[in-house]
Amino acid sequence: MANLNDLPKQLSFASMGCDVRNGIWEPYVSRGEANGVMLDCSQKPENHISCKNPLRDEFIADVEGLNFSVSLNQGDLPKIPKFIPILEKSFLQSDLSEIPGDFVGVSIADIFTSPLTQVGGRLQAPNFRFKPELKESPMFSQKMPILFMSGQDTLIESLWMQHQELSLFPTLRDAGFRIATSPNFSVFVGECPLGHRINQKKSLICARMLQEAGITPIPHIYPMTNFHLRSYVEYFKTNPTIRTVIINCTLQRKDPEEVKSVLETVSCLIEEVADLHIILQGLDVRDVRLFSQYDQNIHYAVSTPFYNALFHKQNIFDNEHGEILAVAGSSESKEKLAIGNVDAYLKYFSHTASSFNIGAARK
Fold it and tell me: Which residues pair with 123 in a beta bridge?
């Protein structure tokens, strides 16, 4: 996460040409954020909105302005467990009754038939069709599924563009979903800060649409600068009914500096917003120890146990070293492997939580 004071002092050509520098959208977009722009705002990269886009005012209108005045209520949200295993799509019709725990996650990409196709080396979204067998999935009677609406830009941007004709949110409710995260619209380093703010607001608007459809929303957030972070802190302080949010860490998990940035974000949010809980999606479980100070407020969602089961890998919790092992070449069915793999992850999180609590007590 970048501090505005730490952004480059030697301004690039792109940053000097960014209209944000003129303070047009303050106080919602700080003119200082223009210093971090590295991609020419007059270019038109896919799935990105910039200050130079001739339709920028329409994009702002689509999200009802740049302020964060979106009213959300999570009063119906049940207590979220420490660990949420996310299903691999081939398990959607499986018997999940023996999978440990009451919750499972489902990826938005897995509830459509062929949501993305590749044409000329580029991903495109065809006409979306919900899987007809979705309503009959055992997960609705055996578990409490949480729909994770994060995914590739092409997918979630296309869903945003087509949400009205798809009746997206009411259809998700009718399928059986009662809890869902809002989408993780892109916020990338070096791109126009106006686009950042529009995408952050878009995610909050989607959370409200979920709520209006009768689905309890978990808003996705991604503050890339300290200015973004302060905006979220103030938003949550003025909306105390929001108790749980999600941060998708999939792109950050392989970069130690990016993981450190997520830790800084988590630290600020939990210390400044009373009783806030944060789901970290896609974080490498080996990095869980970095978040030990905030263990009571952090939850984890990963798909590894089910993907390992699909590829005949057995997860084993090594109690002596406090680690999860993956042993390849298992002859067990994917369903049995999934049961054992999820159990191994639950043991891991139980062990790490106990270790954190013992360490805190000794201090």
Answer: 118
If one counts every other C-beta atom within 10 angstroms of the C-beta of residue 275, the result is 10
Per-residue pLDDT of the chain (363 residues; tens, 9 = 90+): 455 445 555 567 678 889 999 999 999 999 999 998 988 998 765 556 899 999 999 999 999 999 999 999 998 899 999 999 999 999 999 999 999 999 999 999 999 886 556 555 555 555 678 888 888 999 999 999 999 999 888 888 888 988 998 899 999 999 999 999 999 998 988 899 999 999 999 999 999 999 999 999 999 999 989 999 999 999 999 999 999 999 999 888 878 888 999 999 999 999 999 999 999 999 998 899 899 999 999 999 999 999 999 999 999 999 988 999 999 999 999 999 999 999 999 999 988 876 655 444 334
DSSP 311-348: TT-EEEEETTTTEEEEE----S-HHHHHHHHHHHHHHH
d(CA 132, CA 117): 19
User: Are residues 326 and 307 in contact, defined by beta-carbon separation less than 8 angstroms?
Assistant: no
Cα separation, 38 vs 190, in Å, equals 4
- Contact 180/237 with Cβ under 8 angstroms? no
Q: What is the pTM of this model?
A: 0.91
Cα 11 versus chain centre, distance:
31
CB 196 within 8 A of CB 47: no
> Distance between terminal CA atoms of the chain?
29
